[in-house]
Amino acid sequence: MNIKEIQDLIKFVAKSGVNEVEIEQKDFKIIIKSQAEAKEQIIVQAAPVVAAPVAALPPAPAAPAAAAAAAPAEEENSNYITVKSPMIGTFYRSAGPDKDSFVNVGDTIGVGDTVCIIEAMKLFNEIEAEVSGKIIKVLVDDSTPVEYDQPLFVVDPS
Fold first, then answer.
1. Domain count, the chain
2. What is the pLDDT of residue 10?
3. pTM attached to this predicted model
């Protein structure tokens, strides 16, 4: 088989939608795998990760009781503001392991005060408060990954 025939075979595999072609003759063996197969593998591997949290949900009979218990708590906390992560990264409560936390429960913060650091791609981003008030709760542990829009702190603006 010459180079031109191999190139034609690769083009044929790409256009046909076939995932893999294997040709073996007495003096050579050629295997052509399309990238579509690799994309499918990524999707298949990602599916169990998405399905895992669904399986962790409580059974259906317990759900109404949990919802009823959560409703009064939400009404009680309705005047609180949640400070959310503006990016994906690693959450740090202080500027270093031997430094004090930027904020603790009970601290009063003002607009522009640094409340934490989020590291993203080796860049340390100081996250500033967009509200004034008193820190009621810290929702994330130090040195843990956070997602975009994940709640970080609960603040009482009054």
1. 2
2. 73
3. 0.51
